[in-house]
Design goal:
Blueprint (H helix, E strand, L loop, with lengths): L1 E5 L6 H11 L5 E5 L1 H5 L7 H12 L7 H4 L2 H4 L4 E7 L1 H9 L5 H10 L5 E7 L7 H8 L4 E3 L2 E2 L10 E3 L4 H9 L10
Parallel strand pairs: 1-2, 1-3, 3-4, 4-5
Antiparallel strand pairs: 4-7, 6-7
Helix pairs in contact: 1-3, 6-8
């Protein structure tokens, strides 16, 4: 089973869910929503719309609480976990060991089993305030990144976003213990 955490990079949520829908027929997926995805309606969609799409694709309910995610560690039932999109906030929390959302708790619980965590970053400050967290996690064992690119070098020079179409390929590499190349597009 693959855990799939979704965080509040709202402009990339649909891309993540589209990739999840493509992968769901081949992989059993356990969806996990951050609190912001559970509660925030934006021009990109409502929580209800995302719950319906994800629960339909995965044929199971979304994990929504710290208590629901904590058993991921001791029960050791995930072969890998994906966080797509992963915000800069979530990236920083994982780098610092903070587990105050369902997604960060699931990631921490999963990593204790020394299995792959795949991160599809979408952050406006990835090459500024969050760069140290990116560097910290790139060098950490069992953490793998979906290839990154600048989404708008002129208007958002510090922003990086993952190529969501490469989530499955990154997962396959991570399950073999290797980082997909190139990391930066």
């Amino acid at each position: 089973m693959i855990g799939w955490g979704l965080c509040g990079s709202f402009c990339t949520l649909s891309r993540s869910v589209s990739e999840m829908e493509k992968m769901a027929p081949k992989h059993e997926i356990l969806p996990i929503f951050s609190y912001s995805v559970q509660k925030t309606a934006t021009r990109f969609g409502t929580p209800e719309e995302f719950f319906l799409r994800v629960e339909s694709a995965c044929d199971r309910g979304v994990l929504r609480t710290l208590e629901a995610c904590e058993p991921i560690g001791p029960k050791n039932f995930l072969s890998a976990m994906i966080i797509a999109p992963c915000t800069g906030n979530t990236l920083a929390k994982i780098a610092l060991g903070i587990t105050d959302t369902p997604v960060t708790m699931a990631a921490k619980a999963h990593l204790r089993n020394e299995k792959p965590l795949v991160i599809a970053l979408a952050s406006n400050d990835a090459m500024s305030a969050n760069f140290k967290n990116l560097a910290e996690l790139i060098s950490r064992k069992n953490v793998y990144f979906v290839p990154l690119t600048q989404d708008d070098p002129v208007a958002k020079p510090s922003s990086l976003v993952a190529d969501f179409s490469k989530i499955e390929e990154t997962l396959e590499c991570a399950l073999r213990g290797s980082q997909i190349r190139p990391l930066f597009l």
